[in-house]
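Entry 14. Structure prediction run on the chain below.
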Amino acid sequence: MADKTPAGRAQGAPQTLKATLMKSAIGARPEIRATVESLGLRRMNQTRELPDNDAVRGMLRRVAFLVAVEGEPWERPKRSRYKIWRARSTKKHKRGN
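Output returned:
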C-alpha cells in the first residue's frame, strides 16, 4: 500500500498542530461555535494538540479569526463580521410605554 503523506512532512512520529483559542466564540454563528467545540477548545487561551490532517486544517481555517495555530501569525479581527447582528428590541414599544 502506498504511503499517503503530503510532501514536505517527515514520516515516522504522528504530526500534530498546537491550536489556542484566542477570542471567545460567544455571539458567533452556531456553525462557528460548533467548529470550535469540535476542535475541543472550551476556554480562552486553552491550547490543544490536534492531529495534522486535512479535516482539522479545514476546521482551523474556518475559525482562523478565533484560533491561533503555532507557527502561523494570528491577527486580531478588525471588526466582528462573524457575530449575529440583531435588530433593536421593540418590546418597550409593544407595551405602550
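Residues 30-38 form the longest helix (9 residues).
Filed with the rest of this week's runs.
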